[in-house]
């Protein structure tokens, strides 16, 4: 059973989300609620939910501020709800890896679909942790607790509604060593890059660039564990021509620099 926190300052919307949704249908339970961003932060720390559904504009602290202060530490999935006038503001949350934006009034059937997708993603995270535990890599279990590295096998087994998503995954897997962009694939298959990115995010919960970077870091971790290459060589091998940028991205997803990662696992 997955736990959900609902953060919304409008009582009628908050209560509607809590009581008008058949949460058991998607193997979830609402573990708490909050009416503003500051209260939401306190509840996140207390409950440690799997999924947070939050409004954007709220008293004391807005939804974006709440996410900025908690999502990295507590590693939950997030859904933002907003009105049309707030949508551009809500999109700022993309850097926080927010999975979905739901526009008011909320389409409950679409919410069900979104929750189902998120619970599958969370289950994938759990599997990563269990695998790491089974091979007794204690330090790496600590590193991977945030589960920011892809469980690529999960996506390889998926059936996607949009045929281009599989093509994008294959493009990343075969070309990640090179300097690539979604525009390259867009020109190759003659489909708008904006359309491709939208469909990719709908079905994987990641933007194309985020998925590409995560996949590259996954490959770099494997190369680091092999111990055959220097860090700057690994950076080039996985598609980062700028060594400093590689270090920055590695720390973003792993939480440590490559050298510290090696020291912890030597």
From TrEMBL:
InterPro entries: CheY-like_superfamily, Homeodomain-like_sf, HptR, HTH_AraC, HTH_AraC-typ_CS, Sig_transdc_resp-reg_receiver, Tscrpt_reg_AraC-type_HTH. One of its GO terms (molecular function) is sequence-specific DNA binding. Residues 3-119 form the Response regulatory domain. GO terms for cellular component: cytoplasm. Keywords: Cytoplasm, DNA-binding, Phosphoprotein, Transcription, Transcription regulation, Two-component regulatory system. The keyword DNA repair does not apply. It is found in: Cytoplasm. Residues 166-264 form the HTH araC/xylS-type domain. One of its GO terms (biological process) is phosphorelay signal transduction system. It comes from the Bacteria. Gene3D superfamilies: 3.40.50.2300, Homeodomain-like. The modification 4-aspartylphosphate is found at residue 55. May play the central regulatory role in sporulation. It may be an element of the effector pathway responsible for the activation of sporulation genes in response to nutritional stress. Spo0A may act in concert with spo0H (a sigma factor) to control the expression of some genes that are critical to the sporulation process. This is Stage 0 sporulation protein A homolog.
